[in-house]
Amino acid sequence: MNIAMLLQMAAETFPERVALTSSGTHYTYGEIYTAAQKAAQDFSESGCEYVSVLDVSSAAVPIALFGAGIAGVPYVPLNYRLAADELKDLLERISPVYLITNDDQKQLVEGADIKKLSSTDRFLDSVLSGENIEIEAAEGGESVAVQLFTSGTTGKPKAAILRHENLVSYILGSVEFMAADEEQANLVTVPPYHIAGISAVLSSFYAGRRIVQLPDFSPEQWVELCESQSVSNAFVVPTMLSRVMEHIEGLEVKPALTSLKAVAYGGGKMPINIIKLALIAFPHVNFTNAYGLTETSSTIAVLDPDDHREANSSDDPEIHRRLGSVGKPLPSVEIEIRDDEGNVMGHNHAGEIYVRGPQVSGEYLERDAKDGDGWFPTRDAGFIDEDGYLFLSGRADDVIVRGGENISPGEIEEVLLAHDDVTDAMVLGIPSDEWGESVVAVVVLAPDVDVHIADLQAMVREKLRSSRVPEQILFEKELPYNEMGKLIRRQIKALFL
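Above: the chain sequence. Below: its structure as tokens.
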């Protein structure tokens, strides 16, 4: 099945229903589908082998995504925050490409090998006007639907491959067709080059839920759009929710956000104090923690609204700590925790997270990372408790090896974040002549409080053991995150080296 069928089904069922609101303009499912067909014709006639969008969110994103699917060529959104040299390197890897970009970005890609270059405005003018056409979609199934370049901190970005069957499997297994009421709207703030941006388009269109785009996030605009567009659903990364809560706390008149019914979050570790604040401020909102990766076509585990409420209100420490978990695997997904030798670990034993299922691609243009049984090593570290809840403890690559002992930064961060005056924390290892690596930490405190380093060290020593105690603790105003809420560890590490 081709991903374009998801749009076609929606367009044939509710052609006049609004599918997208972008910069104040409304587009129906019928209009998006017709535009995607015209785009597909243009892509095919150009002779391109890839379709790429280098721009912020606009109507061009879903049209190009579905149009590429109809034409049978991979869709490759590019990070508009990259430098010119980085962009040219990526464009060389997807040549010959049909590139859709804005006038400012055009200057950055001059000299690149581009089959056809179109401005975003000209592309939209072309596909949203003129005579309607009917084009049969190319075969989907095992062919490549989307190619996403991973944002690794070192080395050449890997090209993650998502086939039509992976994406369709995820949507059919997690979304009910046209289940949303016509008045429901999903506020999308994540960048279009991220898997969360791709899945937002596919899942919202299949559910019949209108997308409201916010190309450049700000907490003020987020709240304003929630109110003016009667937003019912939203997806945020932890840093976004933190900024929204900070903004709301600073307002004399607090917005009720009565239309908002569900907020999903993911992309990074959510500070416990932030989600607790949100649960108190908006008791009518269903919060969901969604954990997934590019290579898994988005979400593979969820902590659902009932889990949030039960964990937040429970006096049982084992239940309460679930608020810091990512929930349980989707029914169509299998998850295992393995040690360094590949042995499957029991409950509450940390190791690397492996995942298997039809939505799991685990594939790169360069190689297939799955093993012979279809298991994909996520490189995320974590454990599963007795009740099946998955807890993340950082990247497997971030494990600190101190004196031959493997130490998970996540377990130390969890202790530090339990302090009432600590709002954020990061633990890492730095080179040590004596131990190989020593444990250090960077801590963010709440405003106008003073915490002694020795007190934090004592907390870790009491909860864990002496080998886990950070030898150095630095206080910073904030930690560096990327646009998807991932900690940029290399910046923090530079403070100690």
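Residues 15 and 459 are 59 Å apart (CA to CA).
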